[in-house]
Amino acid sequence: MVSPFTIRHVPIHGHEVGYRMAGEGPAIVLVHGISGSSTTWREVMPALASHYTVIAPDLLGHGTSAKPRGDYSLGAHADGIRDLLVTLGIEHATFVGHSLGGGIAMQLAYQFPERCERLVLVASGGLGQEVNLFLRLVSLPGSEYLLDLVLNTPLHDAVERLGPLLRRVGLRLDTTAGEVWKSYSTLATHSGRQAFVHTVRSVIDIGGQRVSARDRLYLTETIPTMIMWGDHDRVIPVEHANAAHELMPSSRLEIFEGAGHFLPWEVPDEFIRRLTDFLETTAPAAATEETFREALRSHSQSA
């Protein structure tokens, strides 16, 4: 029997887009981060799908989706998710974004406010400059050639073969390290590495994150918003969560003690509990062009 969480594909603009979809009820769209895929959410999708329609896409350039030479900006990814939802007949949803996916979720709410019922930012990009050194180095000119040398298929396959041997002698990767390795498996292909580099460069340079939503966070005032972060995050510091919460005083801030960057992997049960509580205790937004216009005008007058 095929699992409802089995990857599916649909052609959009001539490119195959992968996604997982299950459940019934109000829609939740789960947006993964850089080098990730819809499998980021596999520990939380079954529980959420018992009450909601859950859609987890593979972003273009990631997972099983096509990896063309093209636009990997936040706006392009937001357009791609909108197009997938239109294809699937889903008019509006709660958007949950992890890391880069948080930036994409905010971009979706900005570009298509009428489609956004709630916004959940999980260790989100786009809320400050700081980001880990590896991603800053990837943004440098020529990094794609180095990645071709160190992240190739033979090396990937060799490490995969080592896995069973290490387990036999009692050595195991912790949850985070194991999941990070899985997420980087798509980088074993040249097209995957190219998409990864283009995605990084669209939002990061050697100085850190160069795309920020902080000057537009006031627009979320009418959208129920929750910020979720681990206080041991080594990719994007938890200080970004506190700063964003100050700019969005009506938002809900959830800090996970002892957790790092990958909350859906590290603490799935607690993640589900807090997310479900947020969904059950907030009413979906119903934004219109008029409410968007009022928010823009009122901020301009108060500035």
Characterization of this structure:
The protein is an alpha/beta fold and 303 residues long. It is built from 12 helices and 10 strands. An 8-stranded mixed sheet has the order 1-2-4-3-5-6-9-10, with helices on both faces. It has a two-stranded antiparallel ribbon with strand order 7-8. Helix 5 (143-150) runs antiparallel to helix 8. The relative contact order is 0.14.
Topology record:
Elements: E1 8-12, E2 15-22, E3 27-31, H1 45-49, E4 53-57, H2 74-88, E5 93-98, H3 100-111, E6 116-122, H4 133-138, H5 143-150, H6 153-168, H7 175-183, H8 190-203, E7 204-205, E8 208-209, E9 225-230, H9 239-247, E10 252-256, H10 263-266, H11 268-281, H12 289-302
Parallel strand pairs: 3-4, 3-5, 5-6, 6-9, 9-10
Antiparallel strand pairs: 1-2, 2-4, 7-8
Helix pairs in contact: 2-3, 5-8
